[in-house]
Amino acid sequence: MSYWRFFLEHRSEILGATLEHVELVLIAMGIAIVIGVPLGMAIVHRAALRNVALGLASIFQTIPSLALFGFLIPIPFIGGIGKRTAIVALTLYALLPILRNTYVGLTGIDATLLEAAEAMGMTRSQIMMRVRLPLALSVILAGVRTATVITIGVATIAAAIGAGGLGTFIFRGVALVSDSLLLAGAIPAALLAILADVLLGRLERRLKVV
Amino acid sequence: MNSIKPMGKPATTGNGEVIAFRDVYYRVENGSVASRELVSGAELTVRNGETLVLLGRSGSGKTTLLRLINGMLLPSSGAVEVEGRATKEWDLIRLRRGIGYVIQEGGLFPHFTVAENVGLVPTLENWDEARKTVRVEEVLHIVGLDPKEFGERKPRELSGGQRQRVGVARALAADPKILLMDEPFAALDPVTRAELQKEFRELARRLGKTIVFVTHDLREALFLATNIVLLAGGKVVASGAPENFLKIDHPEVRAFAESLVVSDADRVGESA
């Protein structure tokens, strides 16, 4: 029951850290979507750019998160200690699932539909905007969902470079060997991830065209 | 014939030819060494109001010929002329918007309603809403669908036959002179197919469109065509009006004719 007491006594700090965490995730996801979806559209008809973009995004995804934070800190303008570096790293992490799913969704369209669209005199950009994109939405959203869950998790580590968020409680809990502190960060972070997964999953099913 | 004509309203040539293949070859390159010839030396013409059926086995090149007409493919050599102008000279977007296209299963866009599917080319052509609505209702009536009942449905809420009707309506929407149809009725059950074939024949005669129709079904070819062209291995091997077609002395014609007999025998066997 001491956990409960701790939660109640520190609820405003926990809420503040949760909001900070959500803010980090939303900003990073926003940037990743704004970059990833148009880039995914751009690589459908450009093989060279496709290899570079998907290759780079996979590399970012492969680098362990703490190491990626470490790499970014010394870089001028985007680096340093604090939120900015964390947002850059989280964006790089979120990019691959969004980019890959956008590309896969846009290219996985039934070939007869693309043929019909072309035969009816649609231009390439009309096919992209009116056929490929609407039919790929649910696959793209699945990428956004994966990226969001990853980002919520990785954002806890961002506390290590002073970005705030729920990771602050976890790191402090580890340092002070306090289960209450640790759980005050871990439980809301886990709940956030589950909530995002469920809500985005629901939206994804709604956008699916059968 | 030199095919460069001024932009603007293209017309049929004096002798009523709407589509003409002039010594057309189409090859696909497999790397630098081998190339495969899908169409070899095709010569054929389609006259105004004619229903030309391209008949052949799978891989005989009939769909390739069809796709050469609307510029989805361009000939490796020779010329395909549409309304007197080679496809290579056409603005392909303009060419295609002036040619109705129907494929197997209708090729309807699943995220559009029936009305949106049918009104697609008018939408691309920036027709105003009122004119488009009137036209969509008109063509749905033509193919035997009540616009009030079907207009707002999605393709998944239709039967196979209804989808195919919508496909035909969509092809007719912008009132094209030419219709290209790639085995449109092949995926339907035999009863629905026969119904649609009958209605379509009537429709074709009534609307006076120039139609190129691809099928591997001799029965369908004999029923719908005003002229049949038989393809084998990318070459035109025989052609003629349906009433004379079976009399042509060519092994591939005989092979198709025999398929009729076999399928009749099968049917007798089934009903016994």
Q: In total, how many domains does the architecture of chain B comprise?
A: 1
> Globular, elongated, flat, extended or rod-shaped: what is the shape of chain A?
elongated
Helix content of chain A: over 70%
CATH class of chain B: Alpha Beta
Elements of chain A, N to C (H/E): HHHHHHHHH
Q: Which radius of gyration of chain B do the C-alpha atoms yield?
A: 19 Å
User: Number of helical segments of chain B?
Assistant: 11
Oligomer: heterodimer
Instruction: State the total count of DSSP E strands of chain A.
Output: 0
Which ranges of chain A are low-confidence, i.e. pLDDT below 50, for 5 or more consecutive residues?
none
CATH H-level superfamily title of chain A? MetI-like
Note the run of SSEs of chain B as H and E: EEEHEEHEHHHHHEHEHEEHH
List the strand order in the largest sheet of chain B: 6-7-8-3-9-10
- Kindly state the number of beta strands of chain B: 10
Largest two-chain interface: A-B, 17 and 25 residues
Beta-strand residue fraction of chain B? 25-35%
* Overall CATH architecture of chain A: Orthogonal Bundle
Helix and strand composition category of chain B: alpha/beta
